[in-house]
Amino acid sequence: MKTVLITGCSSGFGLDIAKHFLAQDWNVIATMRTPQNDILPVSDRLRILPLDVTDAASISAAIAAAGPIDVLVNNAGIGWLNALEGTPLEVVRDVFETNTFGTMAMIQAVLPQFRARREGLIVNVTSSVTFGPLPLLSVYTASKAAVNAFTESLALELAPFDISVRIVLPGAAPGTSFGKTARGRIQDRGGFPAAYGDYAQTVMGQMQNMTGTLTQSTDVAEAVWRAATDASGPMHLPAGADAIAASEARAAH
């Protein structure tokens, strides 16, 4: 029976990824900053551990408590939506600390055991916003695009140790709390700069009125499952109808 450790399981993608792997009879280590014991099915194959991917001591404690794992899923992330001019560098650093450096730190923490066993799989959840430029998302996109590029190079250096790396790229998922949390963070930081007010409202309106088939958390869970179990699958796996369409559009160009 294999074991997966998933970061950011308190809601959204991480929660559904954990549920999916549990349903497939895997051992699941679901991590979150503030553990909640009532959001996942009761199971003797489930452990819930505290983890802050921006804190080295927290990472060390979680990896020690988890013991040997077969798959690491880096899902923890924070959103940000604003013009660059309205984004304090402190916020830029916060976004990169979680989305980019947190991913790198988690991988560094599990590599010794993967390398010693000459097996292991890493799945990095990024975003379909990296398929093409979108307004007000420059900082968030940069944090995720950095993970994409990092992962592609990492795959080369880990191949001699039989360690595999995959990227799952979800589309827009209004059904999760991710966007709401990001908007709340913007308001906490003073909102959009006045000079960008009209433009920002137009962009926000377009985002809120998106039509067509978007991404469900279950789409992401299924993509991560495929990444973890299909050795013949591609390195990049778009998750959700809109992400697949964006990936195909990019490939066509």
Characterization of the model:
The chain has about 250 residues and is α/β, with parallel strands linked by helices. It has one domain (about 5-80, about 90-170, about 215-250): Rossmann fold (3-Layer(aba) Sandwich). Helix content is about 50%, strand content about 15%. The protein contains 8 helices and 7 strands; from the N terminus they run E-H-E-E-H-E-H-E-H-E-H-H-H-E-H. It has helices at about 10-25, 55-65, 90-115, 140-160, 180-190, 195-210, 215-230, 240-250; strands at about 5, 25-30, 45-50, 70-75, 120-125, 165-170, 235-240. Strands 3-2-1-4-5-6-7 form a 7-stranded parallel sheet, with helices on both faces. Strand 5, helix 4 and strand 6 (about 165-170) form a beta-alpha-beta unit. It starts with a strand and ends with a helix. About 40% of the residues are buried.
Strand content: 5-15%
Rg of Cα set: 18 Å
SSE ordering: EHEEHEHEHEHHHEH
Helix/strand-derived category reads alpha/beta
Low-confidence stretches: none
- What is the number of strand segments? 7
Shape type? globular
CATH overall fold name:
Rossmann fold
Measure the end-to-end span: 43 Å
The CATH homology group name: NAD(P)-binding Rossmann-like Domain
The residue fraction in helices comes out at 40-55%
Number of domains: 1
CATH C-level label: Alpha Beta
Concise overview:
Helix content is 48%, strand content 14%. With 253 residues, the protein is α/β, with parallel strands linked by helices.
Feature tags:
7 strands; single chain; seven-stranded parallel beta sheet; 253 residues; 48% helix; globular; Rossmann fold; alpha/beta
